[in-house]
Amino acid sequence: MNLTTILLLAEAGRNTQFAADHPEIQPRIDNALHIIRQDHISDNGDGTYTVKSQTKIGEQYTVNGVCSCPDATGISPKTGKPLTTFAPKGRCKHRIAVDLVRKAAELARHQQQCLQRAEDQLAFARHQYEAARHALVQAMQRMAEADAAQQAACASCLGLSLSLADEPPLRNAEPAGSRSAP
Ligand SMILES: [Zn+2]
């Protein structure tokens, strides 16, 4: 898990309207980060997370959107009565830790998808470039062939004109106008 992303998300969470309305969320964010740093949170792979209790050794909570700890429920496990202080809107440190880890994982997946898309686009651009380069090479080859054919044609023209020039002049040719009067 990417701790930098989690710290950024936690910082963003501290600056929300919800946090401004419920300043008691701040120490719970601190504790959530502690849980994550201690690696006391594990992904169960079914959308739920198991978070170790920070106060009771051996106890753990399964968090699936909500947490069953006293801070989240607002009910004392000993007396069964409402607690005087508890997490705002059920956002205990366990749930905050899960939200942070889940969101960071989502972002990592999204980044991976973006990267894959960029790589696909690059591969497509490379393919187009190669196709264009191939077409250009072929066109240049054809031009060279046409050029060579033209050169050959000109050479035979030149040969023809040279052979014509080699022909001796006609012997009985008379100057123009010499037959006009006897
Ligand atoms: Zn909890």
List each distinct ligand once.
zinc ion
Overall mean pLDDT score?
89
> In DSSP terms, counting alpha (H) and pi (I) runs of 4 or more, how many helices?
5
Percent range for β-strand residues:
5-15%
From N to C, what is the helix and strand string? HHHEEEHH
Number of strands: 3
Structural class: mainly alpha
How is the largest sheet built, in terms of strand order? 1-2-3
Poorly predicted ranges:
none
Distance between the termini: 120 Å
Overall geometric form: rod-shaped
Structure characterization notes:
With 182 residues, the chain is mainly alpha-helical. It has a domain of 107 residues. Helix content is 59%, strand content 6%. The protein contains 5 helices and 3 strands, in the order H-H-H-E-E-E-H-H. It has a 3-stranded antiparallel beta sheet with strand order 1-2-3, with helices on one face. Strand 1 and strand 2 form a beta hairpin. Helix 1 packs across helix 5 and helix 3 packs across helix 5. The longest helix has 74 residues. It is rod-shaped. The relative contact order is 0.09. Bound molecules: zinc ion.
